[in-house]
Fold this protein.
Amino acid sequence: METPALRGDNGRLAGSRAPWRHPSHRSLSPLSGDLSPLMASRVTYTFTSDQAGPQTLGGEEGSALGTLAEHLQEFFRDTGTPAAELACQVSQKAQAWIYGQHLTWGHEEAAASLEEALGLLEEAQGWRGVIATWIDQVRGTQAFAKGRPDVSGPRSALAEEMGLWLEADGTLRGPGELLSPLCDAPRVIPARAVAPHVLRELQPGETVLVIGWSPELVECSRAAYQAGLAPEILVAECRPGLAGRRMTREVANAGLQARLVLDAGMWEAAREADRVWIATESIGAAHTITQLGVAGLMELCLQEEIPMELLATTDACHPSGLGAAAPAGDPDRVWGDRPEGVEVDGQFFESVPTGAFTRWFCEHGARTPASYEWPDHGQRPAPPCGEHEPVGEATAEGAEADRT
C-alpha cells in the first residue's frame, strides 16, 4: 500500500480529502439482523469525536517544557487502564508535546527525544500488543519522515500519526491487514465488536468462569444480558490488582448473576462452568499473556473438556509475531511494608501456549488459534543506530522461561 503524502500539522483535520478505506473495512454501525439492539448499548472504551482533534499547547511554538519521557512517565506503570485506551491517552499527550516543538525541530534532535521515551515505554508496557504496535508506528513514522527529501523534520508526520490514534469511528481493519506509517486504517478496534460472535456460541443459562478484566469481557457480559441469555458469571479474583473484584462489579452492574471466586477455588469453579472466558492484551502465534493461574487451569479444562476461550480484538496481537514474554511482577504491590529479608514473588501475569485455547473470539468471528493465519509483520522498525533493542519478545522455546 502506498503511504499517503503528508497533510500538514493539523493531521486528519487538515484537508477535505475523504479518508481512504481498505475494501475489507467494515463499520460496526449500523448492524443488520437481530444483533443491532445489542450494539446500541452505551460503550465506554472508545474516544469520541470531540477528543479526536490535535491538542495544541498554549503559547508560542516551542513552549513545551520537559522531555517527552517526562510527559509520558505517568503511563509507564499503568496496567489498570485498557491497552487501547492507554494508547489513545499516550497519543494525545505525545501529540501535544510534539506541537510544542519548534517548526525547525530536526530529525536528530527528535530521534534522541523519542527514543528516550519509547525505550522506557517499551520496557514497561511493550508486552501489550496495542502499545507495542504504537511504538512501532512512531518509529516507522520517524523513519518515513527522515526518508522524505521534501520534509525538513518529523514534526508534521508524527503529529498526524498521533491524530490517527485518536480516531475511533467503529471501523474495523480487514483480516490480516497491517498498519503502516500514516495509513488510513483504524488504529484501535472497539471492544464491542467481539460480542456478536460470542453470543452465537453462548447458550441460555450457561455458567461461565471469567478470568481477568477487559473491555471485551465487559461488553460480552452486557450483550449477554441484553440478549436474555442470563448466564451465571463466576469471576476468579486476580491479586494483587483485584481485577476479579472489578470484573464482578461490571457484571453485576450489567444485570447478571455474579459470584466472586478466590484464586484457591478456581479449579472447583472451572468444574462448575460450561466454558471459561479469558482476558488478554497480548496474543502471539506461540504465546499469549494472561493472568497467573491460566496455565495450570488448562490441564484441568483439557481433561474435563471445558472450552477455554480468549476474548480479544486483533489489535492485541503482538507485532513480534510469536508473542511477548510475560512482564516482571512488582513485589511492592503485593506487600509494600514487608520485613527486611522477606522475598515476595510478585508475578501476576504468565505466558501460556496460544494453541492450547479452544477458540479465540475477535472482531472477525470465532477463530482456532492453532489454525489462525497469523499475518507476517516482517522486520519491526529499529531504533536509530540500534540505540534500544525491543524487550520482552518470546522465542518458540521460551514459554517455560516466561513463567519462571
The radius of gyration is 22 Å. Residues 1-27, 29-64, 395-404 have pLDDT under 50 and may be disordered. The domain at 191-331+343-372+391-402 is CATH 3.40.50.10470 (Rossmann fold). Residues 129 and 400 are 20 Å apart (CA to CA).
